[in-house]
Amino acid sequence: MRKIDDNVYVFDHPLIQHKISIMRSKDTSTKIFRELVNEIAMLMCYEVTKDLPLETYEVETPIAKTTGYRISGKTLALVPILRAGLGMVDGIMSMVPTAKVGHVGLYRDPKTHEPVEYYCKLPDDIENRSVYVLDPMLATGGSAVAAISFLKQRNVKSIKFLCLVAADEGIRHLHTTYPDVTIYCAANDKSLNENKYIVPGLGDAGDRIYGTK
Length: 213
Ligand SMILES: O=P(O)(O)OC[C@H]1O[C@H](OP(=O)(O)OP(=O)(O)O)[C@H](O)[C@@H]1O
Ligand SMILES: O=c1cc[nH]c(=O)[nH]1
Ligand SMILES: [Mg+2]
Known about the structure:
CATH class: Alpha Beta
Strand content: 25-35%
Structural class: alpha/beta
Largest sheet: 9 strands, mixed
Order of helices and strands: EEHHEEEHEEEEEHEEHEEEEH
Bound molecules: 1-O-pyrophosphono-5-O-phosphono-alpha-D-ribofuranose, uracil, magnesium ion
CATH architecture: 3-Layer(aba) Sandwich
Number of domains: 1
Helix content: 25-40%
């Protein structure tokens, strides 16, 4: 994991770089694309969860008693930004099956490129949890900022944003609006095109996950 700014990290692990490159190819099928989103999310989860608190407890093996460790307290909530963020949930849930899941529905208006809210359902105890906001794409950053503003309104204190491809503009926007939110990405691309798509990016993540175009 490489730090590119305060609270901003790129996962340059070879497995992640290999998988994201396959995702970028326009010839990759919906099935493979969806599998890769989950696999990368799972690999990112391993690193992102390294600060989870542990408590000790007694375990009896077939041979002797010993000290075991378990993740303590109310811990995680995952908040995918619909639709594309849903593609990252299963990979992370396979590592932390007790995480609660909230949903924020946003789409980018095709003309203004501004996020439009259509759904928000968060766990009742969200303010006591560390929250991982999930979305494969951070382009202008408008959607991430809007989703995180719902969490801030609910007094969530610990927020991490996990994405696959982050453009410089989106990182800047999210980082200056919410400097306390740690940003993790699998790739950092430099620019956006006239339709605010990430260049080179991987196209429309939602459409590629769900085969809608
Ligand atoms: O950083 P931004 O400029 O806000 O762009 C990123 C957003 O755009 C995409 O969602 P989209 O609007 O395509 O919705 P979808 O997931 O339903 O396809 C993507 O999944 C992000 O949510
Ligand atoms: O490149 C982009 C930008 C926004 N949303 C996507 O799915 N892809
Ligand atoms: Mg989309």
